[in-house]
Structures are given as structure tokens and as C-alpha cells.
Amino acid sequence: MKIGRLTISDRASAGLYADRSGPEIEAVLREVFGPEAQFVAALVPDEANLIAARLRELADTAGCDLIVTTGGTGIGPRDVTPEATRAVLERELPGFGEAMRLAALARVKTAILSRATAGTRGRTLIVNLPGKPTAVRECLETLAPAIREAVAHLRGEDPHAPAQTLTPV
Q1: Which domain holds residue 109?
Q2: To 10 degrees, what angle do helices 133-154 and 21-33 make?
Q3: Which of 16, 71, 79, 151 is the most exposed place for a label (fewest CB within 10 A)?
């Protein structure tokens, strides 16, 4: 299982503060997929063309099964992650964003302002997450079953087969 984690942040990419959300993605997904998961980490500023280029590289060149982004999903003028993601997707999966917003709404009344999306490019699942480490954990815990099943489908595996017949993900 190869996972790309892409942090989108002007300030973190400029070295003004440490990226905490990217490492949180890795920590949660290691809990979900186990220690065999391999990660490719990247950090870019809030620039749609740079985000889209890095998503293409992680999917098409690095061959990631899953790419998880963090940051740039709000309504600020520099929040362009959903647009950059849609530019590279072949199929959008709006249920991911809907599930994240619904799960967060009970705790954070402004969660409906998130524009996070998800979809597929070839055999890669791409998921946008908010930029806060606590939100990263909460969203990934909500999405983990759907992520696992989507990755299995994209790999051509039967996600409903007994666990011992599936390739480990």
C-alpha cells in the first residue's frame, strides 16, 4: 500500500511553522493499514497549479494507491484545494465530503463551510481533508471503512471477500 500525503499550506511551505497535519495523516493511516504502508510526503503552497501537478505526480508517476491532502478546503481566497483536485479527478466521489461534514457538524457548527472532496484518478483514490490535525484524525476515522473498500475496488480486489484472500492493504 503506497500512500501520498500532501500538505497544502503557504506558511508551512515557506518554513514559517511546522507541518503537523501531514504527520497526523500518516499516524492515523498507519493505524488503519498497518506498518507496511509506505508514505510519500509532499508540501506545497496554496497554488492550484502546484497542487494539481503534485497530485498527478503522486498518482501517475509515484503510483500511490491513496493520496490524502490536508489544507486549503475552506472558503478563504487562497483555499483552492478542491478546485485543483477536481482538475485531476476522473470520477468525483461526493459522499466523502458529505460524510466528513456531517460527522463534524455535531462538534463544529461551521463544518458545513468545508469544501473537501474526493474522487479517483486511474487506480488512485484522492481525498481532501481539512487542515487542522484534530480534524484530520476525526475525518480519517470516519472515512476509514470507505477508504479501505475504495482502494480494494481500485486494485481490482473483492472488498467483501474473506480477509485472508485479499491482498493486504
Answers
A1: 2-165
A2: 40
A3: 16
